[in-house]
Structure formats: structure tokens, C-alpha cells
Structure to design on (276 residues):
């Protein structure tokens, strides 16, 4: 049995990436999504032929844009189904190596990686701090680590946080459904909540209004495919944690990662730090 994993969550992500393998995503949108996370990543400090890891690679969508920039990318995921999708999507990249393992067990020597990243993964494991600790152990001194964890709406208003608490009722109900009903319910959320809300935000933005504080405004220029993927991710996952910016910085510092900086744009919170 893999350590520091929730079996239902891993199974759910295997189903998600098998269903939404990201081949339906336009290249321009993929690059836009990628830049949302990697705009703060210090590519310039990596050595030539850098070796790094993608912890929780899922479908391999981020790896497809990282691999051409570096020497070797080690793709790790606890789901064998997700890893098979990643292998297919990354078949054209000979510098990718694949391991089916949890964050507590992935077979990389300590202090051997020139960089690492884990995006949208470690908030779905039982002990996120220990997951960050394991990632940090694999990094060389001076290596950057990029992480994205769900935020606790610490930069949002009270009404926004109350709205999230309402959505939590739906997540807990939907995530406990059988696979078919869970997927159907997530699609309904995408069609009846994500799409109209996001497109309304886009319309309002065209009228000259800043919509950054609008719920789901991050999807205003995203495809329905991305909305369906993320609705399943959000409402179909039984285990998730959320953290404030201060908590994330403390977690990284505790793991020996300093000089932490955060993206000032959505998605929150995306942070990068340097292994001390």
C-alpha cells in the first residue's frame, strides 16, 4: 500500500485523467494555463540539462511544456491509470521517465534534483506537510520548487468565503457518489454554474469592470472542456485541504525551502522557493 495517499482520491484522479486526457485542450489554452503557474518559476537559474521532477504529473499536461526546456523530467503519480495517460501524451518526449508512486515513495535520490514542482496535488493527500518535506529532500541546495495549493480565500471577502462554504456541501455530496453519477453531477455543475457565471464575468469585463473578485472569473476566457475538467476535480474529489498564504510559506520553510515568493494573480496560491 502506498504511503500518505487517500485511495479513493487516487482512484478518482485516475478516472478524471482517463476521461479528460487533455487531448481536447487547445494548444493556446494549455500554454495560457501553464503560464498561470509557471510565470514565477526561475528558469534562468537552472543548469544546462537540468534534471527535475513533476510530483503528481496526472495527464502530463505541464510536463509536455517543461520537458523541452530541460535535460530530464521524472514524472511521478500515485495512479497507474493517470500515469498511462501521461505516457501516451508524452510519447514524443524521450527525456521523460515515469514512476507510479506516492510522494512518500518516489524513487529519486535525496539532494539529486535541480528543480521540482507539484501543482494541485499535495492538498489532496492526508499529510500535505509531509508531502512537501519529501519533495524538498529530493532537491539539491539552491534548487527551485514550484507548488500550487488550494487557497483558504484569505484574500477574499466574507461573502466570498460564505459562498465557498455552500459549495462545500455540494462537493461532499457529489464526491461520495458512484462514478457515473459523480461525473454526471460534475458536468451539470460545469454547465449550470461554471459556464454561465464565467461567461457573465467576461461580458461584464468587456463593459470595463474589473471582475477579479467575481466567483469563477478565472474561467471567463477558458473553454468548456477546462470547466468540465476542473468541475470534476473540484466536486469529485473526496479529500482536500486549503491553506492561507502564511500557512503555505510556513510549510515550505519547515521543509527547508526559503526565499518564498507568491504569484499575485489567480490561481491562488502558487508559490516558488529555493532549497536551503
Amino acid at each position: 500500500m502506498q504511503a500518505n495517499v487517500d485511495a479513493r482520491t487516487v482512484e478518482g484522479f485516475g478516472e478524471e485523467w482517463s476521461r479528460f486526457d487533455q487531448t481536447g485542450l487547445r494548444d493556446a489554452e494549455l500554454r495560457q494555463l501553464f503560464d498561470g503557474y509557471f510565470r514565477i518559476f526561475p528558469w534562468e537559474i537552472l543548469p544546462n540539462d537540468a534534471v527535475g521532477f513533476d510530483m503528481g504529473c496526472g495527464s502530463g499536461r505541464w510536463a509536455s511544456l517543461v520537458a523541452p526546456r530541460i535535460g530530464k523530467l521524472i514524472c511521478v503519480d500515485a495512479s497507474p491509470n493517470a500515469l498511462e495517460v501521461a505516457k501516451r501524451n508524452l510519447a514524443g518526449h524521450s527525456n521523460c521517465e515515469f514512476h507510479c508512486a506516492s510522494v512518500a515513495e518516489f524513487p529519486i535520490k535525496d539532494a539529486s534534483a535541480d528543480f521540482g514542482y507539484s501543482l494541485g496535488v499535495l492538498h489532496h493527500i492526508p499529510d500535505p506537510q509531509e508531502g512537501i518535506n519529501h519533495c524538498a529532500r529530493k532537491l539539491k541546495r539552491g534548487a527551485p520548487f514550484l507548488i500550487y495549493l488550494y487557497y483558504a480565500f484569505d484574500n477574499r471577502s466574507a461573502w466570498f468565503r460564505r459562498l465557498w462554504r455552500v459549495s462545500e456541501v455540494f462537493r461532499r455530496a457529489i464526491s461520495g457518489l458512484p462514478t457515473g453519477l459523480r461525473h454526471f453531477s460534475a458536468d451539470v455543475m460545469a454547465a449550470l454554474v461554471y459556464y454561465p457565471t464565467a461567461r457573465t464575468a467576461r461580458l461584464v469585463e468587456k463593459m470595463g469592470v474589473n471582475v477579479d473578485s467575481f466567483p469563477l472569473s478565472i474561467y471567463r476566457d477558458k473553454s468548456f472542456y477546462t470547466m468540465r475538467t476542473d468541475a470534476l476535480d473540484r466536486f469529485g474529489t473526496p479529500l482536500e485541504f486549503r491553506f492561507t498564504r502564511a500557512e503555505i510559506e510556513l510549510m515550505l520553510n519547515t521543509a527547508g525551502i526559503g526565499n518564498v515568493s507568491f504569484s499575485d494573480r489567480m490561481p491562488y496560491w502558487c508559490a516558488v522557493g529555493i532549497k536551503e
